[in-house]
């Protein structure tokens, strides 16, 4: 196989795993390797990533700023659909994979590469997400998944390989868990978190304060939406990435967005994950609240019935599938009327909608009032009730 590969584009982070993979690919396939890094909002010293990639043997290091594209074309569409996996997870890692994969394929075309590689292990979801995306975008590109074919199957072996090939290993205290960060969230798993009885240590959290340390005074914000997308915060128009970054700040200070759950991986096993999604939590609550006055009841029922399937498609890596395109079009059609403003109260881990308004509101005070009105004849309700109860009435009579 090695003689058929001419050039590889590796999804590269600069960490131990992908640094070892970079050197291993060059040794095994004896061809140039382009190290490609995606900036999706994680805290990173990109100059050092570039320097380390070149020092480890990359022919070229490509760093792509995908922050605006990530939020505009992946996060916002998912939140227009109120995507949530197994009732809790806001899909922060899942949503970042397709945008990273799409850019990796583009870089491969630009660099005339014929193979793609990644550092995902053979146990997790990311290998599936990356590779289904690759195959959906360009099935002619070969896929190399080192974790499934090499014998460097432990940290000890990785470190030994790195030392043998003079690959710098960061001299930092090893974290008792692994983490993945982007503009939507940061996730933690593995290590001490593998026992679901262990409470996460407070020092682990990065984006949010604990409720005990949050301000004693509530923060009020107003978020404006157009067709289901947030466009302004407290009257200030913000780009998608800047909107999410600002919501992350507000949510983090007020202890919003922490989640500790055991989820079902696509490959079949259960996995414990701890997440911080402060801005996304605020966004989803605000969006759903605005829908209460702007979405027709039956449209909302149908849309909500599709959310579990839609979310599962994202989690399992089918962003570029035909069924995903169909569902996204359906979700977006429902969002044509989701325009307006929501006022929210942020306080010690709680995000509470306290007001909403829209020029397309379906809520009419004149209909809903308990006071006297001229638009609703209460006596009509009797026939409505009898007709809806007719089948039960007939069953009761037979008994």
What is the CATH top level name of the largest domain? Alpha Beta
Helix content: 40-55%
Reported for the largest beta sheet, the result is: 5 strands, parallel
CATH architecture of the largest domain: 3-Layer(aba) Sandwich
Arithmetic mean of pLDDT: 94
How many strand segments? 14
Order of helices and strands: EHEHEHHEHEHEEEEEHEEHHHEEHHH
Describe the structure.
The protein is of the alpha/beta class and 399 residues long. The chain has two domains: 2-164, Rossmann fold (3-Layer(aba) Sandwich); 178-295 and 337-357, Argininosuccinate synthetase, chain A, domain 2, CATH 3.90.1260. The chain contains 13 helices and 14 strands. It has helices at 16-29, 46-55, 67-80, 92-110, 126-137, 155-164, 240-253, 278-294, 297-316, 322-334, 365-368, 380-388, 390-398; strands at residues 8-11, 33-39, 60-65, 115-117, 142-144, 178-181, 186-189, 219-226, 229-233, 236-237, 258-264, 270-276, 340-347, 350-357. The strands form three sheets. The chain has a five-stranded parallel β-sheet with strand order 3-2-1-4-5, sandwiched between helices. The chain has a five-stranded antiparallel β-sheet with strand order 10-9-8-13-14. It has a four-stranded antiparallel β-sheet with strand order 6-7-12-11, with no helix packed on it. A hairpin with a 5-residue loop joins strand 11 and strand 12. Helix 4 (92-110) crosses helix 5 (126-137) and helix 9 (297-316) packs antiparallel against helix 10. The longest helix is centred in the last third of the chain and has 20 residues, at 297-316. The radius of gyration is 25 Å and the shape is elongated. The model has no long low-confidence stretch (mean pLDDT 94).
